[in-house]
Design a protein that fits this description.
The structure is a single chain. This protein is of the alpha/beta class. 36% of the residues lie in helices and 16% in strands. It has helices spanning 37-48, 77-92, 128-147, 162-167, 177-180, 184-197, 220-229, 255-264, 278-286, 297-301, 305-312, 323-329; strands at residues 7-9, 12-14, 18-20, 53-60, 72-73, 96-102, 115-116, 124-125, 152-157, 200-206, 234-238, 269-271, 292-294. The chain has an eight-stranded parallel β-barrel with strand order 3-4-6-9-10-11-12-13, surrounded by seven helices. A two-stranded antiparallel sheet has the order 1-2. The protein has a two-stranded parallel ribbon with strand order 7-8. The longest helix is centred in the middle third of the chain and has 20 residues, at 128-147. The radius of gyration is 19 Å and the shape is globular. Residues 2-312 form the NADH:flavin oxidoreductase/NADH oxidase N-terminal domain.
Amino acid sequence: MKVFEKVKIGNLTFDNRIGVPPMCTYLCETHDGVANDFHTAHYTTLAMGQPGFITQEATAVNEHGHISENCLGIYNPRQREMLKRIVDNVHHCGTKIGIQLNHAGFKNLFGNDRFGPMDDEGVIGLNVNQIQAIVHDFEYAAMWARELNYDFIEIHGAHGYLINQFLSPLSNQRDDLYGENRCLLLEQITEVCVKMFEGCVSVRLSAEEYEPNGLHMQDFPPIINRLKALGVSMISVSSGGLNKSPIYSYPLYQMPYAKYLKEHTDLPIMGVGLITTENEIERILEKRDCDLILLGRKLLRDPFFLLRWRDHIGMLSKDDVPEYLYRGIHTHS
């Protein structure tokens, strides 16, 4: 069955084609970006269900890059000490884990300075020196991710955060190089992250902004081809972030964007968006609409969904999981 086939992406081999997308938990109670016992238990539980990989939630690369005061960071030693515990626990379960590196830009709700491509009410437009400082913050974050033994990193270029703010004509009308080439910040961050991490690098993109003057999926093949030339290994396809109009979500609503980008680029594509059933997963992979499938809400509700599926089709043995878990999962002789 295609879903449970091993797949090689970059220098990594995933045991199956199902991944856990980055999902903010907003449970860093100390407001200093340091993970706690909840985060360790949360990611360990997801890892016990044996997805192909987990992408850790958006993690700030500097003190003004947090989405909220309850979000994780990687830029100081206390933060990294707890992140190492998460990585080690996930690896102990035999699952691979990546970290999504992020700067929230003007969507920072942390109560400190809000930065963006341009001056606006309550927003400080970044100058070139400040932009380069943020590029270096991503570079250091990639280095620390490598030292912490993450299997891959993901650059967050979606959902209306800083990189997306520079990419989008909705928020970037600069008259310098960063306005002439709205992809420049993403390119610079990608270049230093690929060099520093020395492993598999993913980029998450919002392939549809749901606004007439925003970005649409047809805008992204040249961007993705440029990212491939810079050494990116895979693309995570999502949508939205800067839209003012509502998004109407329904099962598989984001899959057309993943399908289009798979057809028009050469990088492995991850698809996401209210995918919940075995039949949906099988159909997506059989049609080759994408290469990897991300299950968010599904695995939050049922972390052992994949184990139960494997057991149902006779692909789970006593050697695959701890004995106590096999007793709970296995339901037939």
